[in-house]
Amino acid sequence: MSKQILVLPGDGIGPEIVAEAVKVLQLANEKYQLGFVLSYDELGGAAVDKYGVPLADETLERARAADAILLGAVGGPKWDAIDPAIRPERGLLKIRSQLGLFGNLRPALLYPQLAEASTLKPEVVAGLDILIVRELTGGIYFGAPRESRLLANGERMAYDTLPYSESEIRRIAKVGFDMARVRGKKLCSVDKANVLASSQLWRAVVEEVAKDYPDVELSHMYVDNAAMQLVRAPKQFDVIVTDNMFGDILSDEASMLTGSIGMLPSASLDADNKGMYEPCHGSAPDIAGKGIANPLATILSVSMMLRYSFGQIEAANAIEQAVSKVLDQGLRTGDIWSDGCRKVGTVEMGDAVVAAL
Amino acid sequence: MSKQILVLPGDGIGPEIVAEAVKVLQLANEKYQLGFVLSYDELGGAAVDKYGVPLADETLERARAADAILLGAVGGPKWDAIDPAIRPERGLLKIRSQLGLFGNLRPALLYPQLAEASTLKPEVVAGLDILIVRELTGGIYFGAPRESRLLANGERMAYDTLPYSESEIRRIAKVGFDMARVRGKKLCSVDKANVLASSQLWRAVVEEVAKDYPDVELSHMYVDNAAMQLVRAPKQFDVIVTDNMFGDILSDEASMLTGSIGMLPSASLDADNKGMYEPCHGSAPDIAGKGIANPLATILSVSMMLRYSFGQIEAANAIEQAVSKVLDQGLRTGDIWSDGCRKVGTVEMGDAVVAAL
Ligand SMILES: CC(C)[C@H](C(=O)O)[C@@H](O)C(=O)O
Ligand SMILES: CC(C)[C@H](C(=O)O)[C@@H](O)C(=O)O
């Protein structure tokens, strides 16, 4: 039974890092007889250039038909000045929303081989392993109404709406609890319930879902405190579940604690674990085309794909081990390089993972 | 000409730390003949206990009549279970909004004597001196409509509104530029203009205000990136200006970079520089009544009061120098204590600052 994988290289370093991840994916495909069939399309700026919009209808249909999607990254200065309605990010937001990819998993994992890369003291981050579960299709990102208009006095004003329904909160809370259950059994729900109506409902619904997970220890934290605690004592966290905007902010903060955002993959899942997989980092236009970008986050996104969309735990683990092995061998792209290691380019790094697999 | 200072000790450690700050304020009052007349009232949980509401009308009137307000901190577990409408934080939000205290200054300053306290590597934070300018009376904190209700299908939903008008943005942007002008001449405006309508207006208005400040270098940064950059390379920032919610999150993150949030004061100013001054830290109910809380953030809030509301630069500097001197002497409360220093209590620390002044 064949499985369709849609590959969206995107912009900037996207095509380079995706090419390496595809090598790994193809090898896993053969080795574990996964029956994957790959096809390619465009998203973001590349789609603007090809189709005139950052997500073409035909691409969306292909994405719907696929069993999983591998994405590079989108955006870049080339498209900074265009009509905001067709900016590259709009394509990303639209594919998330149209495919119902509400469950965004963003691990912040410190590789022991890269402990020095963190700006935090080694004892604060050694062994760091947090999973941020971010709600990805609701909240202020998609809330209506949103508008920019003139007031009676001639002044401009603009507003956004932050809505959450019980069912939206319930399903992401479940993802949080399910993840905590197979990890450290601790879930911290982050909100701003001392100020926001939506957060008050968030907290109430998370409490209700908790009844089905007596084995998971639940705590609540205000978002400002969470931003502090991630700096103060990040290892206190196991799984964090939070809304779309807070998750955007906290997952970037958490990823930077590791000092090596070039290593961090992500998954965005729908209700049936169909998913889109992409590195946490952006399209890094400044180093695009130079062959120096770190492909490991994208390669690890393939591992997440095998794990979450296809249940291929053995193959997923094998890829993670191969990545760990090349780090042990001392191979480093520029972003994670330190004294005594061997600096390699994107392709050499990809080849090394393939060889290790 | 006498000046009225309203003192609101608040909850938890509030009364203890405020008592020490008042000693310093009274000494400065005599020494520099400032003509301050102090009166006291309650805010937060203490006000709930006394008046049944977290901010009584008569307290609000006293606050309006005062020339400046010194606040301890509000909140605690004692009032966690009460009606959300009269929770202690509501009093804080109401006094900010009713007095029009839209300009919130939150410095994140690393004291060289306390460099070890940070969880970040010394080279990353040595000399750190950031000022966060947070909009404090608008945005999603006060936006209407906000509501919790039942949908037609019987499910609950709740929403908040994030509005900003041109004039609200303009006045806080000016505060940001004015502060940058007398500091490092760099202003970073933080928003989420790739997603939010309110952020798009924010960015446009900040650009307009920038025309009046050609001597200040303006940059824009998305909030998720800002949360990352604060961890990666915090010293790249001089002044950050941002909205109410982003400012809440980023100022807490930035303050924790110093490792000594017990040292950080804040000011909340209206259009005429009338202000409310309070430590950045909370009411710390767990250590309340033990005489071990750090009063320095509150003492430094007095210094900010003298500087911003009364233009008493000499007196303000003298207080800062006195604080620096007691740190040089090796005196530390528990929160900032390290090996080789002398651990002191709240009162002893306050007395030491008074002696140094
Ligand atoms: C590009 C942007 C719209 C996006 C987001 O805010 O969700 C990005 O920051 C992310 O976190 O994937
Ligand atoms: C107590 C709370 C409502 C408040 C806020 O969110 O503004 C606090 O976190 C702060 O930053 O002063």
Describe the structure.
2 copies of one chain form a homodimer. Chain A has 2 domains: 1-102 and 264-357, Isopropylmalate Dehydrogenase; 129-257, Isopropylmalate Dehydrogenase. Chain A is built from 12 helices and 14 strands. Chain A has helices spanning 14-31, 45-51, 57-65, 88-98, 122-125, 166-181, 197-210, 223-232, 244-257, 296-308, 313-328, 346-356; strands at residues 3-10, 36-40, 68-73, 103-109, 129-135, 147-150, 156-165, 186-191, 217-222, 239-242, 265-269, 275-279, 331-332, 342-343. Chain A has a 10-stranded mixed sheet, sandwiched between helices. In chain A, strand 1 (3-10), helix 1 (14-31) and strand 2 form a beta-alpha-beta unit. In chain A, helix 10 (296-308) runs antiparallel to helix 11 (313-328). The model of chain A has no long low-confidence stretch (mean pLDDT 97). Chains A and B meet through strand 7, helix 7, helix 8 and helix 9 of A and strand 7, helix 7, helix 8 and helix 9 of B. Strand 7 (156-165) of chain A pairs antiparallel with strand 7 (156-165) of chain B, so a sheet runs across the interface. Bound molecules: 3-isopropylmalic acid (IPM) (2 copies). One 3-isopropylmalic acid sits between chains B (89, 92-93, 248) and A (194-195, 224).
Under CATH, the homologous superfamily of the largest domain in chain A reads: Isopropylmalate Dehydrogenase
- Proportion of residues in helical segments of chain A: 40-55%
Individual helix count of chain A: 12
Indicate the proportion of strand residues of chain A: 15-25%
Q: Walk across the major sheet of chain A and give the strand order.
A: 2-1-3-12-11-4-5-10-8-9
Strand pairing plus helix content of chain A: what structural class? alpha/beta
Q: Whole-number radius of gyration of chain A?
A: 20 Å
CATH architecture of the largest domain in chain A: 3-Layer(aba) Sandwich
Order of helices and strands of chain A: EHEHHEHEHEEEHEHEHEHEEHHEEH
- What does the overall shape of chain A look like? globular
Largest interface: A-B, 60 and 60 residues
| Assembly form of the protein | homodimer
Largest sheet descriptor of chain A: 10 strands, mixed
Quote the average pLDDT of chain A.
Answer: 97
Cα(first) to Cα(last) distance of chain A is 24 Å
What binds here, in terms of ligands, is: 3-isopropylmalic acid
Whole-number count of domains of chain A: 2
Subunit structure (chains A, B): Homodimer.
Enzyme class (chains A, B): oxidoreductase
Function (chains A, B): Catalyzes the oxidation of 3-carboxy-2-hydroxy-4-methylpentanoate (3-isopropylmalate) to 3-carboxy-4-methyl-2-oxopentanoate. The product decarboxylates to 4-methyl-2 oxopentanoate.
Main location (chains A, B): cytoplasm
